[in-house]
Batch of 2 targets.
Target 1
Amino acid sequence: MTKIAPLYLEDLHVGQRFTSGTHQLDAAQIKAFAAQFDPQTFHLDEEAAKTSFFGGLAASGWHTAAISMRLFVEAMPIAGGNVGAGGEITWPLPTRPGDVLHVECEVLEIKPSQSRPTRGMVTMRNQTFNPQGEIVQLMVAKMVVHRRPQSPAAG
Amino acid sequence: MTKIAPLYLEDLHVGQRFTSGTHQLDAAQIKAFAAQFDPQTFHLDEEAAKTSFFGGLAASGWHTAAISMRLFVEAMPIAGGNVGAGGEITWPLPTRPGDVLHVECEVLEIKPSQSRPTRGMVTMRNQTFNPQGEIVQLMVAKMVVHRRPQSPAAG
């Protein structure tokens, strides 16, 4: 991943892709997040997790989502900030201690706003992968993106 | 909120509602989460946030989601664990320092599995409210819920 300058609506096109850096999960991170936000045994205790739905310690889906956000913000910085309006999220597989995660993003749609000429809505498909190349999270997200400000001379 | 026993598929019906306890957000929590998962200035710095999209310090949407998960798990514990397959999430309004949040949940649909007779898929509408009664997060989520095990005598 190369560091890129913050992006305006004019910098984006449908089909454009961004690949994030990586984040390595471990059991301590999984348990710390779970203790605060999702205190269920399969996120907190290796032994108890073995007989659970997940068959072993697994991260909260919201932990995977939070890590994916970090990777996304770094890979595709939007001028003025990455502001999501929401979207659809699925977790086809759990994430595990030791997983090195990365995110691949693709611009699906760009809709300039009719009512607010300085911005538009961009739909992204952000996929989070584990080291086996399996998708552990799919997020189709809508994001507010601003147009590049006109310079006074150009006005 | 009264503490309830873990729920099986048979314990649920369409229209059933659950109300969570509360969680009070503060600036320190907002910044700590953002530093780890969503390091953008409007989540990290009160002064810089004033001129941002949010007009002041606001929590990451993923922070609101994580807090909402905690409140949901405590309000509606599912036997074997609250395992989400995914869903649609939107953040109509940001959450702010001082906000006392709570979650109201409603069972929208119950679909017994055709292929796996021991479980079903339950669709929930989970709304997170701020103290003004405004919805700050709407999540329509699908969740795996198990049937109550048959006792050997009944088999």
Note: Residues 9-149 of chain A form a domain with the Thiol Ester Dehydrase; Chain A fold (CATH 3.10.129.10).
Target 2
Amino acid sequence: MTEPDKRRRILDAAVKVFAQYGFYNSKVSQVAKEAGVADGTIYLYFKNKEDILIQVFIDSMDEILRRQEEAQEGLEDPVEKLRVFAETHFLSVAESRALAEVITVELRQSSKFMRSTDMKPFGRYLGMIAKIIEEGQDAGAFTRTLSPRLTARAIFGAIDELALEWAMGKRQSSLSDTCAHTTELFLTGLQTRPTSTPSSGGKP
Amino acid sequence: MTEPDKRRRILDAAVKVFAQYGFYNSKVSQVAKEAGVADGTIYLYFKNKEDILIQVFIDSMDEILRRQEEAQEGLEDPVEKLRVFAETHFLSVAESRALAEVITVELRQSSKFMRSTDMKPFGRYLGMIAKIIEEGQDAGAFTRTLSPRLTARAIFGAIDELALEWAMGKRQSSLSDTCAHTTELFLTGLQTRPTSTPSSGGKP
């Protein structure tokens, strides 16, 4: 097994073990067993159990960022961009329930971790959503009254919550329904649109 | 100290200790010290550390549900109801940063807990949002194309994410701005509204 293969194998094993037993109840020796390596080998690649979780997170965020960038390629319409973003997030989560559980549940266990500089990839992820919103505002497709930063965070929160529900197996809707639904909410909102607006010159 | 006082005092101490050290790093003896009771006293009221966290959660959800019900009293307009709901959630979180941290961060640490029947108060909370949406749909104020259940979950996710950011102290906006912003996003959406609609009879 080459060095990068071994590192990858340990990370994959960690995802399985953390998802099954929870991060705090998991032991490094369980990860080693699942990966088929000696306990000591783990420490050639990682400082401790927390370091493994951080690397799982960084690797996964890198992977989802790469997928998002690939999915956005060639898209022009801001509405389409936002739809594709939500879809890619859901698909990535659906693909690996164990990974989703580790990222959405286990990752939040340590508030120390949430405050660390290792949250940079998360900042990049939020930045991608904010950029789609800014571009949409510049193109006149999105309203300028909403802050791209706050809106990006709200959209991430909503997508993440629905993805969590999905990962936990409480699925009352199909993936594509949930996805279409979420983007419709962000795009057009709950309020019914008036049949005419002040600028249209009063009632028809 | 009467019995209910002692229980309350232990729970308040637990919130402080869990928020400072994280749930898994906290010891029951630290909670006892903070509450000013003997270690053994804790076990008269709670089975173990996890039971304390569950009771903190149930008590807090009961309190926030009570506040939400009180805040909704006498309101008729669905839009106003949704605004007040978001506002009350943010105000409750802002009032106790420690409690917010325990609820939004520490609570997610155990996926076992997330799956337990103790999540009932959370279901009631989601149900309150879904009911506001259903009533709004019946009154013709909200579009019927959105599912109340999925929308409630998406709205909770967005509010919770922004409340988490607030609780973590990364505040780039005032509480009222964040609040107004979030409800505007749900109500009117990102897309700019057309200046006239097909039913208004063309351009003015």
Note: The domain at 1-46 of chain A is CATH 1.10.10.60 (Arc Repressor Mutant, subunit A).
